[in-house]
Amino acid sequence: MTDSPPPPSPEDGARPESVSAAEEPVGSPAAWRRAFRRPGAWIGLVWLGVVAAAAVFAPFLASSHPWYFELADGTASSPLLEHLSPADVAVPGCLLVVAAAVWFLRRRARWALAAAGVALVVLGSVVFVRPPQITVYDQYRRALADGSAVAARYTLIPYSPSDRFRDRPELRHPLPPDADHWLGTSRRGADLLSRMLHASRVAMAVGFIATGISLVLGVVVGGLMGYFVGVVDLIGMRLVEVFSAIPVFFLLLTFVAFFPRNLYLMMVIIGVTGWVGYARFVRAEFFKLRAMDFVQAARACGLPLRSVLLRHMLPNAIAPVLVAASFGVPSAILYEATLSFLGLGLVDEPSWGQMLSQATGAGGGFYWWIAAFPGLAIFLTVFGFNLLGEALRDAVDPKS
Amino acid sequence: MLAYSIRRVLLMIPTLIGVTAVVFFIMAWSPGGIGGSEAVAGGEMEGRSQLAQQQYLNERYGLDAPLVVQYGRWLNRVSPVGFASGSGGKVQWDQPRLLKWPDLGESLAKRRPVIDLYAEALPVTLLLNVLTSPVTFVLSVWAGIVMARRRGGAADVGLGSAFLGLWSLPQIWVGVLLLGYLASSEYLKWFPTGGLSSTRADEWAFLPSFGEGGAWNRGWLMDRAWHLVLPVLCLAYADFAFLSKLMRSSVLENYTADFVRTARAKGLREKVVLYQHVLRNSLLPLITVSAGVIPALIGGSVIIESIFSIPGMGKLTIDGIFARDRELVLAGALVSGVLGLFFILVADLAYAVADPRVSYD
């Protein structure tokens, strides 16, 4: 490390003294602060913020449904709001609730209230949000053309990801970028930028949820192996070995090809194939920790197993695992993109990988904009996560 | 060391059974089951011939047996110690065999012995990897040393960011861009769009030559090399970036070690310190990592092989998976499992040979 060790922060005193005093506790606030001294971490974070915002607000940024629509007889409506799906409402709603809880409430109650609020928002949006079953994108353009509507106000990008211009056959083929379609159109004539914005939701959701699943699996299996050495460890290690002996991508292909195409299933599959690394990590950490004095003391005090494992050991083992997870998210995003590229992704949802596969076709021909922009989006997102992960790793791991 | 190796090899057996069992039961329990596409292919036939096809498949591959029995029969066939197998893989309990050649069976979809299919595909994938790995390793050792020597300088920071970027570049994107700009008819047409040889390369001489009438012919070898440029490039860059970063931290770790200070204090020249003391010790982590990189290359070439339509292991595996071909998929799991475990063992042993401080006895 080029930096001299920072002065101990007040929080350090709260930790058990037996975590060797010479070595700064892994994951202390000072370490996190040091990670963000690097410009790379900020660049990564800013780009990821942009992608996350695009993912959350995609329907409000790119939609063929006008947010204000006025018929000739004076009735006004908002087709954009009517066509929102439960997920479109629930995700921004939940973020709002959590942000409000963190901002306004005192420390004690806020997490419980935030959880209750999130549950309420999810339940409400599932029950009350009912988008129309059939979506007709060209009805507004037709209505404007024949005079039955007088006004329509659109979002920033007035095209939905699957609006393929049924009313205008002359547009139903790939067009290079122009003033109408800023990044060009896809093979079947849909707006590429709109598709990319909506695809960021799939990428982010798969990245985070799949990594979350592998993290939970890895922590549980690895923690149990590291704490109950012996038979549990032997069996667990065989399980770990089985999953690490099969190349991840082969296992992934086998799972994905044999089961129905579904976003949630894909998250589970990518999660289930990727937990081995975390399990090894946590096992090694728990091995070290279980011999330490503060854990011995906790056990000698007769604390229940739950408390020893979750309150005393896990917080001391989690920082390096979280760093590993920040590299796990981009690899999950890459897996999703690659599977979609190979034609094993979701069927009707836009995805960066699926778009990329449309750039070159059997009929020859190469549409550079279809190759360049979705590929760039994958690259920048993966790069952003890796920059962030590297900064965190260097801050947390004193060796490098 | 011998006892240790034998124990490790014996421990591979339960792992390999686990690997193939996971893959078999994923396939068997999925909607459609084993041989799904073969059974569906009968959908356009008349009832009687569909029935005949089903009967044929059942008799030949034992598809009507319970799943556990099917899996047990498959294990018996690939195990070097076991019983002879009859039609449909039935275990013939009265004919024990002490040592037999593992039988990978016959592909359901391609109607050919799996071992033949692998004999065709494996050399292709190995060729790709044999071309890629040594160059990658040598270049990354060099790049790692360059970065470590200029630690904190412009070259180190610049190369470090560049390698992180290179490592983040998705293979699918690089493949598509290379194909689109360097091989498509719309832009530069420097390279072929796919495959391993030109259509008539079989008839050409091995080396480049001027044929009759002085017509230039690039020959089989040049043609093959020309086809391999883009796939090898695409396969190499990510590992190059990853290994270079690893090498940098490994060299740095050794630079501050006591034995290096001793070497300097003895008055050794910087070159001797670097190449004889630091470098040799810094290569050790590469051994461990290469155990993971080499099998991953074979798995990772799935993407390259499907972008550049190269008929290697990856392509074969994907075909098998799409056809729900029990024999091909299980053989794929077995082969990649054996390769993976074997390379890990080799790496562990090589580590003990290279570093006298490590011992397994």
Question: What do you see in this structure?
Answer:
The complex is a heterodimer of chains A (400) and B (361). In chain A, strand 1 (68-71) and strand 2 form a beta hairpin. Chain A has 16 helices and three strands. With 400 residues, chain A is mostly helical. The model of chain A is unreliable at 1-23 (pLDDT under 50). The termini of chain B are close together. The mean pLDDT of chain B is 81. Classes of the chains: A mainly alpha (400), B mainly alpha (361). Chains A and B meet through helix 9, helix 10, helix 14, helix 15 and helix 16 of A and helix 1, helix 6, helix 7, helix 11 and helix 12 of B.
**What amount of the residues of chain A lies in strands?**
under 5%
Q: Quote the average pLDDT of chain B.
A: 81
Task: Tell me, briefly, the overall form of chain B.
Answer: globular
Q: Give the uncertain stretches of chain B in residue-range form.
A: none
| Helix content, binned percent of chain A | 55-70%
Structural class of chain B: mainly alpha
Radius of gyration of chain A: 25 Å
Order of helices and strands of chain B: HHHHEEHHHEEHHHHHH
List low-pLDDT spans of chain A.
Answer: 1-23
Order of adjacent strands in the largest pleated sheet of chain A: 2-1-3
Number of helices of chain B: 13
Approximate shape of chain A = globular
- The percent range for helix content of chain B is 55-70%
Q: Tell me about the biggest sheet of chain B?
A: 2 strands, antiparallel
Helices and strands of chain A, in order, run as HHHEEHHHHEHHHHHHHHH
Biggest sheet descriptor of chain A: 3 strands, antiparallel
Radius of gyration of chain B: 26 Å
Class computed from helices, strands and strand pairing of chain A: mainly alpha
